[in-house]
Amino acid sequence: MDRSTDLYVDGKRHILVADDELINREILGNILGDEYNVLMAEDGEEAYELIRQNCNTLSLILLDLKMPRLTGMELLSRLKDEKDYKSIPVIVLTSDQASEVESLNKGAADFIPKPYPQPDVIRARISRSIELAEDRQIISATERDELTGLYTSDYFYRYGEQFDKFHPDSDMDALCLDINHFHVVNERFGMSKGDEILKRIAGCLEKAFHASDSVLCRKTADTFLVYCSHRDDYSGIADVIASSCDDMPTSVKLRVGVYSFCDKKLDIRARFDRAKIAADKIRNNYAVSVSFFDETLMENELFAEQLVDEFPKALAERQFKVFFQPKFDIRGDKPVLTSAEALVRWFHPTLGMISPARFIPLFEEDGLIAQLDEYIWRITAGHIADWKKRLGVSVPVSVNLSRAELYDPALVDTFERITSDAGITPRDIYLEITESAYVRDADQIVKRVTELRDHGFFIEMDDFGSGYSSLNMISELPIDALKLDMMFIRSAFDRINDTRMISIVIDIADYLKVPVIAEGVETEEQYLTLKKLGCAIIQGYYFSKPVPADEFEKMLQGADN
Ligand code: C2E
Ligand code: CA
Ligand code: CA
Predict the structure, then answer these.
(1) Which pLDDT band, with edges at 50, 70 and 90, does 495 fall under?
(2) Of all atoms in ligand 1, which is nearest to the CA of residue 432?
(3) By C-alpha distance, which of 422, 444, 424 is closest to 433?
(4) Are 277 and 301 in contact (CB under 8 A)?
(5) What is the strand order of the sheet 290-292 is part of?
(6) 466 in helix, strand or coil?
(7) Minimum mean pLDDT among 7-16, 19-28, 60-69, 147-156: which range?
(8) Closest ligand 1 atom to the C-alpha of 539?
């Protein structure tokens, strides 16, 4: 709670005087009335009620220790136990020396003896207590996170460094704890549920790590940092936190990244960067909750950075090439080449060929993908036009779209421009949209996809079987083909040779009146089985790997006769 902004509501600070004797209230009222806005309570209960109502504006409480109903001492204990009230300074009014000490121990800021000293002394003590409390408030507002009471990151790093200074020989671990999909919790259940979860996590961390050998921090909304003496095992922590949130409307799953035995020559922030890299490695892995940093991760991270840095130059120098992987229609006696998928490759001057699996996710994260894809779509459209013109063959080629691109209101215009610039029609280029893109924010995606279809573009749902779309949902989706995810096919053939799931998907596709495309088909057995099951189109190493344009052109010429 930030009280500092509310303290001067009407030009004067507010003070509460709680004393059961009228005469005392009047004396204090007279002494303080010019400078402060003075509220009066006649007993402890009334005082408590006034504090409750005015806790955001009260600058100080003057508290008589002997009062009916609730004594001053009891009230003091109660106030110091409550988060919202404990920062309001309390000066006790007492004639009994033993109580002075007791009340100071209980958290009183100061005391004023009875009978009262000179008015100047009273005013000085009051203003000093207020000043001290306000200073402390300013410090703690930045030192501690308001919601959880853990350190904020600047202080956390500072105290971490201090810890190192005092314990130069301790082996230390840096931990980064992230909640999976926390934004969804806030969106679905509201901020207050989100806040409650964060507070519980902070509570669990405080229990699990002792102040004597650890420092805790809430870094951003749902990221916590822990700097602590080395432990071998952190697997219990995520579980403890998960079970502390058992009564929440959603399960809370944490990923814990650990950088063990920190290199203390490394800047303390860099140690936590490493913990974060470890945590991010298991971002989408629900089976694992703890991940340890190692050097290969660092290399990966540096490699990733290099790729992102070099992207603009690579694009300008045309280091990205489009490969084509043919798709065969297997419904007839002989497989017939009917289309292809355009797949990007990066020919790096020193690193050689880099697979899209390496850089596409990075570019998606960094927002570079749209530039790359538009480039790939253009090149692809150019090839389609060229083959049409020179070879007289019309082979539609599909291109891949990333999820973010579906939010671009200009997407349809972009494709119309690309096709018309190349001199081809929307029917010549197919669009592959991954199933997982449909799942989140389905309405928005469906709207855009419908728009694309209305303009004549043909949509293939990619990676089908890897996402989470329900039957219900698929039946309403605007799609022209279902492309089975490769892993789906792989597991059907590998493990138990159970192809029932594939049959079911083919039935769904039949119901939707769209063909099924199977990708990643590598063996004759897979091909023959898929054919028997009624799969329409096949793509995979069994027929061909993705090949450069000139090689694909040869296949086209071969297929033409
Ligand atoms: P995807 O769209 O699922 O593409 C299919 C991937 O499976 C391709 O990997 C392809 O080379 C590979 N593949 C095809 N047949 C077989 C097979 O029989 N066995 C095996 N093991 N693999 C096979 P690639 O080219 O590495 O692309 C990986 C992913 O990168 C693609 O997955 C796609 O999601 C993305 N991608 C590729 N090119 C582009 C692009 O131009 N734009 C965007 N946004 N994404 C792209
Ligand atoms: Ca694809
Ligand atoms: Ca795919």
Answers:
(1) low
(2) 2
(3) 444
(4) yes
(5) 214-220, 223-229, 172-179, 254-259, 290-292
(6) coil
(7) 7-16
(8) 15
Query: Angle between the 22-32 and 119-143 helix axes, to the nearest 10 degrees?
Result: 80
373 lines ligand 1 (CB under 6 A): yes
b/e for 467-495, b at 16 or more Cβ within 10 A? Answer: bebeeeebeebbbbbbbbbbebbeebbee
Burial of 13 (0-12, 13-18, 19+ CB in 10 A): buried
CB 298 within 8 A of CB 330: no
The bridge status of strand 458-464 relative to strand 481-484 is: parallel
| Cβ atoms of residues 16 and 58 within 8 Å | yes
Residue 12 has pLDDT above 70, yes or no: yes
Pocket test for ligand 1, best of 311, 360, 376, 552 (most atoms within 8 A of CB): 360
**Torsion angle of C-alpha atoms 450, 451, 456, 457, degrees rounded to 10:** -70
CA atoms within 13 A on the CB side of 107: 18
**How many helices (DSSP H) and strands (DSSP E) are in the chain?**
21, 20
Tell me the Cα Rg of the chain.
34
Q: What are residue 450's phi and psi, to 5 degrees?
A: -60, -40
Distance CA 321, CA 345 (A): 5
CA distance 395 to 466: 28
Query: Do residues 291 and 274 touch, judged by C-beta distance below 8 A?
Result: no
Contact 442, 473 (CB under 8 A): yes
Burial of residue 108 (number of CB atoms within 10 Å: 0-12, 13-18, 19+): buried
238 neighbors 256 (Cβ within 8 angstroms): yes
Task: Judge whether 519 and 540 are in contact, CB under 8 Å.
Answer: yes
Ligand 1: centre distance to CA 346 (Å): 13
Q: Which of 111-120, 192-201, 421-430 has the highest mean pLDDT?
A: 421-430
- Give the separation between CA 80 and CA 104, rounded to whole angstroms: 12
Ligand 1 pocket, residue 437 CB under 6 Å = no
pLDDT for res 238: 86
Q: What is the pTM of this model?
A: 0.64
Looking up tokens 């840096």 gives 174
Judge contact between 201 and 253, C-beta under 8 A.
no
Domains of the chain: 8-143 (3.40.50.2300), 153-293 (3.30.70.270), 310-556 (3.20.20.450)
